[in-house]
Amino acid sequence: MTIDSALQSLLLVLIASLLLLLWMGWRTVRGSGGLRFYSLRRQRQKTGWQLIVLGIVVGLAAAGVQIFGRRVAYTIIPPTPSITPTSTITLTSTVTLTPTITSTPEASATPTETGTPSIPEPMLVIFLESITPGTAAAFSPIIIATRLDGFNRPLDGSTSFARPPRRLLGAFTYDGLQDGVRWTALWWRGAVLVCSESKPWDGGTGGYGYTECEPPAGWPPGEYEVQMFLGQAWWTSTRFTVEGTSATPSPSPTP
């Protein structure tokens, strides 16, 4: 039996005792009026009122158990944690991450072809923060979409786009983050850096966030990869394919 169930049982017993004592006391006091002898009648009334007072005391004890019982019980017998299976982490939406867009020309630094993804050397000069990411930081897989709902959750996530719009979004959930740590998102098409975002994190500990990319030249067909970093450490990546090109601005006719 747990502490909570024991307190609940005790409370029910006290309430039942309260009702029983009040009923017995009232019956005793009422029945004493029919006695002929004064001393016997006084004794019966005294007994009845004692039962009523005792019932009131029991009622106060029940109120004390209801208000202070759990606190006192946990002080005397500290609860021990029990292992319960959990499916996924439930994140609470806090501060909405609104990253800035930095479109990078296609002729830029290239990532290493093998091994763990890394941030291009030219970008490291802006890394001035001294805060390092904690080991509890966690990101969900990035979902590429064209639209998000009011909580920054993807509405049409996909890994393949035939004719994508000018802007694509990479939605994710996060937990255990710390404001001030450097967060970076890189959008690659093969060895070409298409978009990049890098800023001190300001989205709070947990919630829903996104990265976005709107290349000036649109989305040529090919395989793309989105990489996310905390500090200089790679954290997660996802890939998607563009099978067709989006509508790009048509050149103005030459007069």
**Can you tell me the residue ranges where pLDDT is under 50 for at least 5 consecutive residues?**
80-98, 100-113, 246-255
Distance between the termini: 89 Å
Give the spatial strand order of the biggest sheet. 1-7-6-9-10-4
Overall mean pLDDT score?
79
The domain count comes to 2
Question: What's the total number of strands?
Answer: 10
- In the CATH scheme, the class of the largest domain would be Mainly Beta
Over the alpha carbons, how many angstroms does the gyration radius reach? 35 Å
Q: In oligomeric terms, what are we looking at?
A: single chain
Helix segment count?
2
Sketch the topology as an H/E string, one letter per element. Answer: HHEEEEEEEEEE
Principal-axes shape call = rod-shaped
Structural class: alpha+beta
Task: Annotate the secondary structure layout.
Elements: H1 3-31, H2 38-76, E1 102-103, E2 138-139, E3 143-145, E4 160-161, E5 168-175, E6 182-189, E7 192-200, E8 207-213, E9 222-230, E10 233-242
Parallel strand pairs: 4-10
Antiparallel strand pairs: 1-7, 2-5, 3-5, 5-8, 6-7, 6-9, 9-10
Structural overview:
Helices cover 27% and strands 24% of the residues. The radius of gyration is 35 Å and the shape is rod-shaped. The longest helix has 39 residues, at 38-76. It has 2 helices and 10 strands. Helix 1 runs antiparallel to helix 2. A 6-stranded mixed beta sheet has the order 1-7-6-9-10-4, with no helix packed on it. Strand 6 (182-189) and strand 7 form a beta hairpin. The protein folds into 2 domains: 3-76; 102-242, Sandwich (Immunoglobulin-like). With 255 residues, the protein is an alpha+beta fold.
